[in-house]
Each structure stands twice: as C-alpha cells, then as structure tokens.
Amino acid sequence: MANVSANPDADQVQVQDIDLSDPQYTSDGIGNHPERSTGIRQPDTMYLHILSRMDILCNFVGSLPRGYSYFGRPHAPLGSSIRRYDLFIWGHPSGRCFRSHRQFCPHVVSIVQNKLDNCACYLCAINGPLSGAFAPPPPPSPPAAPTTV
Ligand SMILES: [Zn+2]
C-alpha cells in the first residue's frame, strides 16, 4: 500500500510516485474496450498526468491499473469553436466506463489502498462492490434429484 505522508523535518509534503500497474496494486480491470466510435485509445501517460493533478498527493507514473485503458473523443459543440475532449476510462468489472476524473479518482484510491471490496466510486456504487471480477463464483448447483418411475 502506498504511504503518502508529510515530512515534518522539511515542512514539505512528500509526493510519492505511484505506478498503478505495479503488481502490488490489485486491479479489478477486465480489459474491456469500446466500439471504435466511442473514442480512440490514448497513451496512459496523458491520463496519468491529469490524474496527478487531482487532490491526491501522488505523482502517477507508468501505466493505468492493469485492465484499464483511456480513450478520448474530440468534439466541438454546435455553434462553438471550442473543441472539447470527452474521456472514457474502460476496464471496470461492470462493463461500463468512467466519464470523468472525479468518477475514476475514488476507484484509483481504492486500488492503491487495496480496498476494492468497499469501493464507493460511481460505478461500484451503481453495481455493488462485489460485481464483475471480484464477485465470488456462484455456488455449485445441487445434484439433480433422482427421478423414480
Ligand atoms: Zn470503485
């Protein structure tokens, strides 16, 4: 688990580098990806830079958590010259995608803290914390009752 703490000697906050693809972080990513029309796969480093600017005192390096990928789709609203960039983070066991950094950030924190079973992010809250890859296997079916004739 990552340990982010303040350095009392230097009166500065130490920012720790975290590689979310490191095997020490248990990812629940399932590696699903969208149809071509929902975006183009983007480099992980592009998204990690954005994620590092969130309110987490970490510098994310390397790659996204295993099984997660970042897709983007540029668009310009009608009548506007400003181009926007829609983002999609795919890989959640629900099969749905995160549509913003604010949605994905709590899930990243749960991965780093190895607390996915209690994740309260947007998609886990919708689908339940034990959905998808973390769901226990269904109990075996009882044997069929013998039929007597
Ligand atoms: Zn979650």
Automatic annotation (TrEMBL):
Cryptic loci regulator 2 N-terminal domain: residues covered: 63-124
Record Pfam families: Clr2_transil
InterPro entries documented for this protein: Clr2_N
The name this protein goes by in its record: Cryptic loci regulator 2 N-terminal domain-containing protein
UniProt organism field: Aureobasidium subglaciale (strain EXF-2481) (Aureobasidium pullulans var. subglaciale)
